[in-house]
Amino acid sequence: MPVIKILFFAAIFSLISCGKVKPSGNDVDNTQYFKDRKKFEAALAKSAVVCGEYDLDCPDNVAKLTFWSETNGKFALSVCSGTLIDEEYILTNRHCIPENLIKVGAGASCNKQIVINFPDTKNSDAEMLDCIEIVQVFPDKEDQPDLAVLRVQKSTSLRSGTSLNKKPYTHRQEVYAYTMNPNPYVRMSGTIVRKECSISLDNFMTLKRDGSAGDVLLSGYNCKLIGGNSGSAIFNQAGEIVGVINKRIDNDVVKKIFYQNDISHMAFTNMGGAVNISCLNDLYLNAGKGCISNDLSSAGVSFENYLDEKLSLNNLQSENEDNIKVTFTGNLELELSVKNYVLPRERLSQIRPKLTRYYKMAQSVRKEMIFTLGKDLGPGKGVIK
User: Fold this and answer.
1) What is the C-alpha to C-alpha distance for residues 172 and 269, in angstroms, rounded to an integer?
2) Of 65, 167, 199, 246, which residue is 20 to 30 A from 28 by alpha carbon distance?
3) Rounded CA gap, 251 and 264, in Å?
4) Which fold has domain 17-161?
């Protein structure tokens, strides 16, 4: 079996932070590696962020996180995003926290390993804050979300926190995010920009999901997620946090999968994944069962069952599957329609066995592959300076 097939779901979804993933063509390789302390300190001194919106119209609670670790005299310097949820507390991803702090957990001092940069906005001045301690970092387990809470130095600009809304999502709910995009030329600096996204609860990747599911699919033509965007909050139209971005989809890999299986599809939009805040019992306590963060499949639901449900909803159970056209939309949603003639690569009768077999294979490896993705691939072979 070709390697590309074995790596289907693991390769499509990748953590987008901060150097936890081996560089593989991301728009920005935002981890730098140093052999020399002075060069490391010089790069760290360049840590800064600006608002990229017109008239500096960025929220005053969205920040750039810079963190680093030292191993045998070598330094790895990385960036992520984060959002104030209180005047002293930042919400971000677990995989945006150095491994040594994750091992200690709540109470670990993050001073001299994480700094927080806020941009100059129309309401607040730019400033850098020190990280004080890890308040919560959820366990790196299947049923726990990719989230962490940091306590940081108080701002002098009276920045406002943002409330969390744990109401379940609706399919195709419109949301937005302010992400920190690293500068491709000065990688320790970045720009805060707004992105418009839509939540999908019914697609080939996640199948049919409940609005309280742990991780969900994001998509949109203005929803391009790149390295450094991990930890960015997603907001509902009321400006409340409803999730946190933590994954992106590699569209080139998706295209290869469909091409190799001779399956027709529409042009793909930008896609990624986010942790659903509604699955949490309490932000400062371990999440309850069902807050699955690493496996985006619907537990126990087969692709066959998903297709049969689709046929039932469209009253197509009695139709000849040679006459049923399958359309994969730009965000991997699946549409069915009846036509007098259907091209072989669009026929349900041809697509059903291919994707059923494919999905079973992917489910057998996906749990482990996704679960260990950020941990096993590590920071990769970056530029050593």
Assistant:
1) 14
2) 199
3) 15
4) Thrombin, subunit H (2.40.10)
The pLDDT tens digits along the chain (385 residues) read 333 333 445 545 555 544 443 333 333 346 888 999 999 999 898 889 999 999 999 999 999 999 999 988 899 999 999 999 988 999 999 999 999 999 999 999 999 999 999 999 999 999 999 999 999 998 887 778 889 999 999 998 888 888 899 899 999 999 999 999 988 877 788 999 999 999 999 988 888 888 887 788 999 999 999 888 999 999 999 999 999 998 888 888 888 888 888 888 999 999 999 998 887 777 777 666 556 554 444 455 678 889 999 999 999 999 999 999 999 999 999 999 999 999 999 999 999 998 888 777 766 554 432 322 222 222 222 333 3
What does R_g of the chain's alpha carbons equal in angstroms? 21
Q: Give the distance, in angstroms, between the CA of residue 75 and the centroid of all CA atoms in the same chain.
A: 25
Amino acid at 46: K
Q: Report which secondary-structure segment, H or E, holds 343.
A: none
For residues 246 and 177, is the Cβ–Cβ distance under 8 A? no
End-to-end CA distance of the chain: 39
| 89, 82 contact by CB (below 8 A) | no
SS3 221: coil
Residue 158 corresponds to which tokens in the numbers above? 């009276």
Concatenated DSSP letters of 283-332: TTSPPPTT---S--S-TT--HHHHHHHHHHHTT-TTS-GGGEEEEE-TTS
CA-CA distance, 77 to 268, in Å (whole number)?
33
Q: Could you tell me the two tokens for 164?
A: 């969390």
Cβ atoms 187, 23 nearer than 8 A: no
Both tokens of 239, joined, read 């400006």
Among residues 165, 275, 278, which one has the least CA distance to residue 212? 278
- Tokens representing residue 54 in the block: 């017109």
Q: Quick one: tokens of 53?
A: 């919106």
Tokens, residue 100: 């040594």
